[in-house]
Amino acid sequence: MDNSGYEHDLQSRPNNKEVEASRLSEEEIKAEKKIIYKNVLLISVSFLLLFVAFESMSKLQSSINVVNNLGTWANATVYASLILSCMFLPSILIKKLKVKWTLVVCIFTYSTYIAAQFYPEFYTLLPTAFILGMGAAPMWSAKCTYLTQVAHRFAGLDGSDPEAVVVKFFGIFFFFFQCNSILGNIISTSVLSSGKTDVYTELSDEAMAKCGSAYCPAQLGSSLSNITETSELTSSSTASPVDLENENFKTDITKIYIIAGIYLACSFSAAVIIALFVDPLTRFGEDERQEGKPALTGKDLLVATFRHMKKKKQILIIPLTFWSGIEQGFFGADFTAGFVTCAYGVHIVGRVLIVFGICDALASVGFGFVIKKIGRVPIFILGACINVLVIIIMLSWTPTSSAVGVVYLLAALWGTADAIWQTQINALYGVLFKSDEEAAFSNYRLWESMGFLLAFITQASGVCVFPKLILALFFLAIAMVGYGMLEVLERREARQSHTQ
Questions:
Q1: Residues 452, 178, 87, CA angle at the centre, nearest 5°?
Q2: Coil vs helix vs strand at 58
Q3: How does pLDDT run across 255-290, given as a tens digit for each residue?
Q4: 8 A C-beta contact, residue 107 and residue 46
Q5: How far apart are the first and last CA of the chain?
Q6: What angle do CA 21, 27, 30 make, to 5 degrees?
Q7: Which string of DSSP letters, residue by residue, matches 275-304?
Q8: Helix, strand or coil, per DSSP, at residue 227
Q9: CA–CA separation, 249 vs 66, rounded Å?
Q10: What is the mean pLDDT of the segment spanning 412-441?
Q11: Which of 317, 267, 340, 291 is nearest to 103 (CA)?
Q12: CB distance 204 to 344 below 8 Å
């Protein structure tokens, strides 16, 4: 899901530092800082629990709810709803409920979707996916608002630079957040690998030729039963040849219930933590956060979002933002289904995603240090080169029973590239649009969600992996051309400002 917006509301507040520092004693300042750290950590842990549940369940959808591509249609619905939500709902909901209770209410929208996994049908998953999407944008906006507000409060206590504190607090947050893939997939792997695993068929290399880049979601057809199939119903003695080809997509319903139950408990715990233990933002000046700056209503934000699209820099960065959604959606749907589940079984998906999550988390931290040494341009080029390399391997390699390690390697490389896109595109928006952050990050959420939506709709519609890989290369090329033009424009403006 979208994790953008940490630069939101970075403007310093005149005289706030001096006022805070002079008003409190040293002991009171220390106590206040501890309270702020407590709230930052609680919100971080809450989002970790929530996305342990959602992200892990989302990446399993194309492997467990495969009849008529139900799971992928559900994922597509999430991002279609998010596109609508991000354009007007955050301002409305935060204004009505305040930041803390916006977080609580929106977390429960995620719980409805996870609860629907107990009875996955089009009339249960799609409505709850739509509800989740409507809650996602306000939740992320509320989180960004809370962290930036308490960061300004913290900076005001000792007269430090607010922007440095914001970066620090978001570093803490994303350290926890990036661990969700690791913890969530440890849970799913443990459950799916427990007990009897003879439900998973070791395919011959000839059968695996229909996996990888040759995989087509439509090939499953309606002959494959939904996740409600038990291991007793999938024995090779009674299965047809068509069923045998798709045996790895069948999963014991009891294990799905266990996973859904654990994830539902995690999502409820996330809401309870914020409701009971996080201090309301009014304690840190929520009512004054927009002082001297008119708050955007839902209608104002919608108008500002579309007006912002006319800016040259925003136009140039749209392909890169769109690519960010494409690459995440492809990995979460096509890669997990075509390269992992199809060839090696759904119980392997979690293990592969753990590798992806570890590399993503480590690279997110590591590139933060590297960019200070070499700048952002080489980092973006590296991300593109990694993705091109992985796509070429995917196009030319066919899974075999003896080459399962390749999917782990591909996941590790894709996770490294994903870390670049997620961290650096966020930062780039913050640099380019310092004075217009609300409209800018609304555009970020909009175009990234459009990328997700395209990736999931094409998979749900039965488009094979091979043309999806070609499409991914095309969008990556367009994205890098736009980024290159943006950097040229930025350097030209920088030279002009120096000469004046």
A1: 40
A2: helix
A3: 889 999 999 999 999 999 999 999 998 887 666 555
A4: yes
A5: 43
A6: 75
A7: HHHSPPGGGGTGGGTTTTSPPPPHHHHHHH
A8: coil
A9: 8
A10: 81
A11: 267
A12: no
| pLDDT given at position 226 | 41
Tokens of 312: 């040259």
Radius of gyration (Cα) for the chain, nearest Å? Answer: 23
3-class secondary structure, 14: coil
Read off the tokens for 304.
Answer: 């500002």
Residue 146: C-alpha distances to residues 13, 100, 284 (Å): 16, 8, 9
**pLDDT, tens digit, 9 for 90 and up, residues 137-149:** 889 888 887 887 8
Contact 162, 470 (CB under 8 A): no
DSSP 8-state assignment for residue 228? T
304 in Cβ contact with 402 (< 8 Å): no
Report which residue type is found at 117: Q
Task: Give me the pLDDT at residue 286, please.
Answer: 60
Residues in CB range of 376: below 8 A, 6 or more apart = 424, 427, 428
Pairwise CA distance, residues 339 & 349, whole Å:
10
* Mean pLDDT (the chain, rounded): 81
Please state the rounded mean pLDDT for residues 57-81: 84
Is the CB of residue 83 less than 8 Å from the CB of residue 222? no
Residue 461 pLDDT:
86
The answer to whether 76 and 456 have CB atoms below 8 angstroms apart is: yes
Q: Please give the Cα distance from 306 to 308 (Å, whole number).
A: 5
Specify whether the CB–CB gap between 417 and 480 falls below 8 A. no
Nearest to 462, CA basis, from 9, 70, 59: 70
Convert the pLDDT of each residue in 142-196 to its tens digit: 888 788 788 888 888 877 777 677 767 877 887 788 788 889 889 988 888 876 5
